[in-house]
Design a protein that fits this description.
By secondary structure, the protein is an alpha+beta fold. Helix content is 20%, strand content 44%. Strand 2 and strand 3 form a beta hairpin. It is rod-shaped, with a radius of gyration of 30 Å. The N and C termini lie far apart (93 Å).
């Protein structure tokens, strides 16, 4: 009789143990892209951007701030208007970082 009681208890606990052991904990790591960005503010009309020795690109003039994505690391940025250099500086871009470039 005594063993029958323990057997009933074990039979009641066993399904709960199966359910609990089937639950698993998942862990997820999200890695950010290894890039940052330049954020341009000010008078953006007629500007061209050159990063390192890459060809110049037009900076799109808009009502909002303009962002350009760059890989992490050191870069030399130059901004031109009407053929004149108006910004020439070295920047260190880190993951997720924004670097503000104010243009007059």
């Amino acid at each position: 009789m005594k063993y029958k009681c323990y057997t009933n208890i074990l039979l009641a606990i066993l399904p709960m143990l199966v359910v609990v052991s089937s639950c698993e904990m998942t862990e997820r790591a999200v890695q950010l892209a290894d890039e940052g960005y330049l954020m341009f503010r000010g008078n953006l009309t007629g500007l061209k951007l050159q990063v390192d020795d890459a060809p110049q690109v037009d900076i799109q003039d808009s009502k909002k701030d303009v962002r350009y994505t760059l890989e992490s690391g050191r870069h030399r940025i130059r901004v031109y208007r009407a053929g004149l250099t108006i910004v020439d500086r070295q920047v260190l871009v880190t993951t997720g970082q924004g670097i503000e470039v104010v243009v007059q």
